[in-house]
Amino acid sequence: MLTLTELILQAIDPTAMKCGFVIKNLRTDETALWNERQRVPSASLIKLPIMAEVLRQAQAGSYSLTRRIRVKQEDKVPFSILTLLETGNDYSLQDLITLMIVQSDNTAANLLIDLAGMEKVNRFLAGLGLSATLLQRKMMDGTARRAGRENFTCAADMARLLELLYREELVDAPSSARMLEIMKQQLDTSMMMLQLPDETVVAHKTGELEQIDHEAGIVYLEGRDYLFVMLVWDAPANRDARLAIGRASRAVYDYFAAQDICG
What Gene3D superfamilies does UniProt report for this protein, alphabetically (predicted)? Predict the structure, then answer.
């Protein structure tokens, strides 16, 4: 019988693209690892720690999530639903966080980076011991990318952040619960949810750049909740990476679904 790691590698074919992953049963701690500390561009996974730092500051009393921010024309960047909406509208911080996660809205992300502060996001990450994860540029900042300022992460860091969320220890219990509920509304189902049963509850975030696709989430499976974090880079095409993540996700789901339920 193949091990969980072997099943995943069989599904994703690491000879065709590079990958790193952390899969962990959150009830039994059974874990499968591969290139988990390889640092790669984070794409939109960096929006998870941005969300967490905004909520940490709100919990500390720096501002309320009902605070409203006006979106100006100069704030708008590509890959943002806000570019299609009327300029000058006000949105609550709660709305901007939701847009940043469920639609991966880049304008919302940049407004929240401005609010929270890039240095504070990185200080928050360092405090958690997430040494491979770094926010160095805003979304769609091509000038920063060409200058070598990229956002980075690794599978191990994302898994650590998700486990803290799951155990309601990231920021505090109410904030962690709020973040998980937002992540359960994720609109991108083209990767880890692609082949899962429609009724599966998943709290997750996707990320994509050219030849790079990432997925980080928690799958709620009765008695067998598990982490699924998979980073794929140097793929022949983004479609290949998404399909590989979908196959790997199904392999993991079937593996844990076949196990006895843990009390």
Answer: DD-peptidase/beta-lactamase superfamily (3.40.710.10)
